[in-house]
Amino acid sequence: xxxxxxxxxxxxxxxxxxxxxxxxxxxxxxxxxxxxxxxxxxxxxxxxxxxxxxxxxxxxxxxxxxxxxxxxxxxxxxxxxxxxxxxxxxxxxxxxxxxxxxxxxxxxxxxxxxxxxxxxxxxxxxxxxxxxxxxxxxxxxxxxxxxxxxxxxxxxxxxxxxxxxxxxxxxxxxxxxxxxxxxxxxxxxxxxxxxxxxxxxxxxxxxxxxxxxxxxxxxxxxxxxxxxxxxxxxxxxxxxxxxxxxxxxxxxxxxxxxxxxxxxxxxxxxxxxxxxxxxxxxxxxxxxxxxxxxxxxxxxxx
Length: 302
What we know:
- The chain is α+β, with helices and mostly antiparallel strands.
- The chain has 14 helices and four strands.
- The protein has helices at residues 8-22, 40-55, 72-77, 104-118, 123-143, 147-160, 165-177, 181-189, 199-211, 220-228, 233-245, 249-263, 270-282, 287-300; strands at residues 29-35, 61-67, 85-90, 93-97.
- A four-stranded mixed sheet has the order 2-1-3-4, with helices on both faces.
- The protein is elongated, with a radius of gyration of 28 Å.
- The model has no long low-confidence stretch (mean pLDDT 90).
């Protein structure tokens, strides 16, 4: 910003703008709110901006308010002709006009997009970078069958990020793998309202539902019933549960798909519901789950 010919007060305003907006915007996303005390819409939008900025502070978002009556030189530099006017700054430059977004939901959606596109660095992003490799390690150990060690890894990560959905979900599945369903359920029930919507929590809940479906055990009697009557869907459903409980997800999937093939509406679609739980518990990005989803689609749409 040019300062030639400006008064001392104007120079001070520009220096303040540089220290509060331009310099922080090198790493943070700065929301710049032009407002005035007499502006009714400004007073309505102000608390919304303040709440969103507070919620996103850990993601590297900062709110700076510019009173157009007191900081006329700044308002003139930006050619502000109506208020409220709201800009997002990053890297010393305006990157978005946020003025059209007036609700909390709208602002958060556009901020999420900007943060992702611009590589904004905040405490939350730094923590994610630190714990992501540890979460991957815990998942690898759990997938390898060492549930006690996976539990230990997830508990250590939880000390850094106790409400992280992937940490809560991973720890719950590690507890389930050790037969500690009650502990897993209590852990999942304690997840925050926002975290409860995360796919990692949904995956753990699906695994919990499957764990209570049927105990692993002898399947000979069930298999005999099915051999005598292939349409004994109850026996096949119980067989699927027993196979899943014993770790045979292929066998469980095969049994459920066979029920769907024979009578997809049996018991209000119970086999399909359980099959989808099995996929969710495996992780929807898991290659096995993707292959099973293709099998289900082929069955339903051919």
